[in-house]
Amino acid sequence: MTEPTTAPPTGRDRLRELLDAVLDEDNSRLSAMAGRAHASPFHFSRQLSAGTGESPVALRRRVLLERAAWRIGQGRSVTDAAFEAGYASVEGFTRAFARAFGHPPSATTSGSGRWLPAPNGVHFHPPIHLWVEEDPRGRPSMDMTVLQAHHDVDDTALLIRIAAELPEEEYRRVREPELTVLSWDGPEGSIAATLDRLVAGKETWLASIEGADTPARGADDPESLRVRHEEAGARWIATVTDIGRRDAWGDRLIDALCDPPESFLLGGVVAHVLTYSAHRRLNARRMLRAAGVEVDQGDPLEWLPKRYTPRKQGDAT
Fold first, then answer.
1. Amino acid 192: pLDDT
2. What are the residues whose beta carbons fall under 8 Å from the beta carbon of 229, sequence distance 6 or more?
3. Band of the pLDDT at 183, cuts 50, 70, 90?
4. What is the dihedral of CA 107, 111, 116, 121, to 10 degrees?
5. Taking residues 294-310, what's their average pLDDT?
6. Which of 73, 184, 262, 279 is deepest in the core (most CB within 10 A)?
7. Residue 197 pLDDT > 80, yes or no?
8. What is the 3-state secondary structure (H, E, C) of the chain?
9. What does DSSP say about strands 252-255 and 262-265: parallel, antiparallel, or unpaired?
């Protein structure tokens, strides 16, 4: 698709223009979304992400999964729902659906919940509309565990973005050869290794919780890490939120990825990931500063006001 040369129509909310472009039935690719919104793919992605806290691809995937859940609950076949949601195969759709909702499409009923956690409150609303929550449930609340999970994911994304600006040599330079956070992960004395371990930790524990095979280690260049983290971070927040909703912190996970298999409490798994993620994020900041990069403290006190605004007494409902 060629870049549009005409200006976007005036007199309409720009965010709504972007959302319409994302969710248009014909716009399955980022270039098509951007063309509909009269923007380049780069600026379209940046505007949409700034306005919603989600990338265009992630938002479209989530809302179409919500629509698929509603249609299956209304009696539509899983096959039809899969292709309507843009998946090339029923198998791929079934895997994505189960990761998102915690159960296979075939277990969906007309009364089951169909909204997935979202940072912006934008959801599918039947039959063809969007619903925007006034107080999005996917936004961090004062549930401290969910709050920490959101902060961890947001802060890791920030560090990956900062690292992407480094020259390759600085990104991969081993600054602390003896640095090993967890013995089974090996040394991680470079910015590249530290950020890779941050992402891989969630990928591995998610596979254990979901009963999947040991995930293959992905590439560790900044762009690959960004894509890996976007996918794993969204699943991790959804998983932590679901554990809290079910009050399942005391449930036991038999981790078959260990040799021999071991048993862990879900609450312990979440605490483990949050603890070592925080440690690694501090390590990454120390190495970034050594590379001459100015970086903040990663303090939740500074992050929270940007993500959470409590409703004042007397506010209109």
1. 97
2. 153, 156, 157, 160, 198, 199, 202
3. very high
4. 170
5. 82
6. 73
7. yes
8. CCCCCCCCCCCCCHHHHHHHHHHCCCCCCHHHHHHHCCCCHHHHHHHHHHHHCCCHHHHHHHHHHHHHHHHHHCCCCHHHHHHHCCCCCHHHHHHHHHHHHCCCHHHCCCCCCCCCCCCCCEEEECCCEEEECCCCCCCCCCCHHHHHHHHHHHHHHHHHHHHCCCCHHHHHCCCCCCCCCCHHHCCCCCHHHHHHHHHHHHHHHHHHHHCCCCCCCCCCCHHHHHHHHHHHHHHHHHHHHHHHHCCCCCCEEEECCCCCCEEEEHHHHHHHHHHHHHHHHHHHHHHHHHCCCCCCCCCHHHHHHHHCCCCCCCCCC
9. antiparallel
What distances in angstroms separate CA 18 from CA 7, 9, 23, 67, one per listed residue? Answer: 14, 12, 9, 19
Q: What is the mean pLDDT of residues 131-143?
A: 53
Q: Give the integer Cα–Cα distance in Å for 5 and 44.
A: 15
What does the alpha-carbon distance between residue 116 and residue 132 come to, in Å, rounded to a whole number? 13
* Angstrom distance (rounded) from CA 142 to CA 244: 12
- Please give the torsion angle defined by the CA atoms of residues 140, 141, 146 and 148, in that order, rounded to the nearest 10 degrees: 70
In angstroms, the CA 102 to CA 165 distance is: 37
* pLDDT tens digits for range 55-101: 888 888 888 888 888 888 888 899 998 988 888 899 999 998 888 88
**pLDDT tens column, 214-267:** 888 899 999 999 999 999 998 898 889 888 888 889 988 876 666 677 788 999
Name every residue whose Cβ is closer than 8 Å to that of residue 307 and which is 6 or more positions away in sequence: 139, 140, 150, 154
Q: Which residue is listed with tokens 């039947």?
A: 126
Q: pLDDT by residue (tens digit) across 9-48?
A: 444 456 667 677 776 766 667 777 777 777 777 877 887 7
Tokens standing for 137? 């449930």
First vs last C-alpha separation in the chain: 44
